[in-house]
Please model this.
Amino acid sequence: MVNQSVKAASLVLGLVIISACSLPATTIPSTDGATLAGNSPAVANSYADIPISANDQLAVDKSLLLNTGEQWIGRAVLKSKLDTVQAFEYYMANMPSQGWINITSVQSETSVLTYEKGNRVATIQIKRGTLSGSQISVTVSPRDATAQ
Model:
């Protein structure tokens, strides 16, 4: 069982590395610790197929973007004014409208939602923010080609 898990993890890591070599890495210019509004054109165009609340801020230095638009992979780290329950409900309500199919979700201290769309999988982690609101991490990666 562990051996299969190691193989699966190695395959996913290999796919990400191969994808990284073939896709253009995109950087959104910023200074250290800078954030961009979730509804800014740079964010909306780069992370085109995930919903981002207008009041959210993209933490540029913590995010990673390979490719752009509806085929991006990487991670978007968001600082949200929504509390954790509101953020969970926001993604449950809005991911399907972007074509994502819910695979599983767990609402807890750190909530996790998992979606699939075509050959990609999105994992959303939501936890309480430092002072208020929440911190949201959306990670999109290629789906394991052998999974059915």
